[in-house]
Amino acid sequence: MAEQSDEAEIQKQTTLELWLILHHKVYDLTKFLEEHPGGEEVLREQAGGDATENFEDVGHSTDAREMSKTYIIGELHPDDRPKLNKPPPRHPA
Ligand code: HEM
Predict the structure, then answer these.
(1) Could you tell me the distance, in angstroms and rounded to a whole number, from the CA of residue 84 to the centre of ligand 1?
(2) 85 Cα to the center of ligand 1, angstroms
(3) Is the CB of 13 under 6 A from ligand 1?
(4) What distance in Å separates the CA atoms of residue 90 and residue 93, rounded to the nearest whole number?
(5) Would you give per-residue pLDDT tens digits along the chain (93 residues)?
(6) 78 CA to middle of ligand 1, Å?
(7) pTM (2 decimals)?
(8) For 4-76, which CATH superfamily applies?
């Protein structure tokens, strides 16, 4: 029984994990999902990608920006930055 619970818990945590990029910084928003005043869904939509434009479009307050610093876990490698603005690779038809 205990093993089943542990597995379920691990599964849950894996599903909930959420990283995204803002201004070349990497954010782990896993613990922020439920607190986000703009809702969980908008963050999920940005998961794993560069959310800078959408973050700025919303016009987040100074408070929101201050708050966001708490969740920075790293920085995108300079070599990977130019790749962010390129459209996704297209597959031949
Ligand atoms: C570290 C990242 C983020 C933090 C700390 C954060 C924090 C906040 C806060 C505090 C608010 C309340 C309004 C304000 O104070 O500006 C808010 C609203 C909102 N946020 Fe975020 N946010 C983050 C990322 C994002 C991202 C990536 C999106 C992507 C679309 C987003 C979309 C929204 C929306 C749609 C609202 C609601 C605006 C409204 O009701 O007028 N947020 N956020």
Answers:
(1) 21
(2) 22
(3) no
(4) 9
(5) 556 667 777 666 666 789 999 999 999 999 999 899 999 999 999 998 999 999 999 999 999 999 999 999 999 988 888 887 655 567 765
(6) 26
(7) 0.82
(8) Cytochrome b5-like heme/steroid binding domain (3.10.120.10)
